[in-house]
Design brief:
Layout lengths: L1 H20 L12 H5 L2 H18 L6 H25 L4 E2 L8 E5 L9 H11 L3 E5 L3 H13 L5 E6 L11 E6 L6 E3 L1 H4 L11 E5 L6 E6 L8 H13 L6 E6 L21 E2 L25 E5 L3 E9 L8 E8 L2
Parallel strand pairs: 2-3, 8-9
Antiparallel strand pairs: 1-12, 2-13, 3-5, 4-5, 6-7, 7-8, 9-11, 10-11, 12-13
Helix pairs in contact: 1-4, 3-4, 5-6
Length: 338
């Protein structure tokens, strides 16, 4: 009886391990609770190792030896697979190469309102020589203060902005601000972003297009978080984001509230979201957690991204300290492909 129970528990644990390691095989990557678990691969790896240690100790109890050995094997396989995926995507905080004449550096930072000061953001932009800045949860007034400071330092940037709701002094989670270097040309937010006829559902994203018709279309992204009550809206937001990168010249940056695993069904032509490819997973920082910032990087979720269409090649990425926000910042360097 106990032997049969042990076999049953081992089989159930093996199935659960397979789902947690690669839920997209079972089409469960956007399903509660697997969507939440897979977001933190570092924590999943730690969990498998903890189970392996407990199983190893249980080997000393003769009646449980067979059961403990089978659980140990499954846990080690789960840990090895999770660690292997992490190694391919990259655990580090990254580096950036020297900037070239054709380089475009993109900063994505959910600043949690004014948890990060305008001065700190401006300093990061100057230090990292950033050309495009996506700031979910940042008011237009903050963006304007940043732009003034940058102009005084000889690094001018134009400010663009989308806001949901007309409530005076409403939460900055209802706002998204974008700064773009004039060296990339003149840009304007498209009308459907501002009137919400085509946008993410609960918190705003912004599609900013070049007025000249040449240069990348830039999408500042903010998807809703995958809370139990928001799962359907979250899935809809991710599909909307993927739809913003058809064939053409595109850069997506912001708080996707999703990892690469959640996007398994949303890429086309080798992309991760539509035709766009994630920069961090291709430059060695793909598993480094950007949220929550109070956790170590390896225990957090890499939900902030910079992505680009195939005419851009990512050559480096850097995860920066949060400086007060619950999100770390991500800077990516893109070079024209070919």
């Amino acid at each position: 009886m106990f032997r049969l129970l042990g076999i049953l528990l081992t089989v159930l644990f093996a199935i659960a391990t397979a789902i947690v390691v690669w839920p997209q095989f079972f089409h469960l990557e956007q399903t509660y609770p697997f969507a939440q678990l897979i977001a933190v691969r570092g924590a999943v790896l730690a969990g498998f190792l903890a189970i392996a240690v407990v199983s190893l100790l249980l080997l000393f109890a003769r009646p449980l030896r067979g059961f403990a050995a089978s659980i140990l094997i499954v846990a080690l396989l789960g840990a090895a697979a999770t660690g292997g995926i992490g190694a391919v995507r990259g655990f580090g905080t990254g580096t950036l190469p020297e900037k070239t004449d054709g380089s475009v550096r993109v900063l994505s930072w959910n600043t949690a309102g004014e948890a990060v000061s305008a001065e700190t953001i401006a300093d990061a932009i100057l230090t990292q020589q950033v050309d495009v800045v996506s700031l979910p949860e940042t008011a237009e007034s903050v963006g304007e203060r940043i732009a003034v400071m940058l102009r005084e330092q000889g690094h001018p940037m134009w400010v663009h902005h989308v806001k949901f709701g007309d409530v005076e002094n409403g939460p900055q989670a209802w706002e998204t601000t974008i700064l773009i270097s004039p060296e990339l040309g003149d840009y304007s937010v498209i009308g459907s972003s501002e009137d919400r006829s085509s946008n993410t559902g609960s918190v705003p994203s912004a599609v900013v297009m070049p007025l000249s018709g040449t240069g990348p279309t830039i999408v500042a992204v903010h998807a809703v978080a995958p809370r139990i009550e928001e799962m359907q809206q979250w899935q809809s937001d991710l599909q909307w984001i993927a739809d913003q990168c058809p064939a053409g010249d595109f850069i997506l940056a912001g708080d996707f509230n999703a990892t690469i695993d959640h996007m398994a069904s949303l890429g086309v032509n080798g992309g991760d979201m539509g035709n766009c490819r994630d920069a961090a997973t291709r430059t060695g920082t793909g598993v480094t957690g950007t949220w929550p910032a109070q956790y170590p990087e390896l225990l957090g979720a890499p939900i902030d991204h910079v992505m680009s269409s195939a005419n851009w090649k990512p050559t480096g990425s850097l995860v920066l300290d949060a400086s007060g926000s619950d999100h770390r910042a991500l800077v990516v360097q893109l070079e024209p492909a070919g």
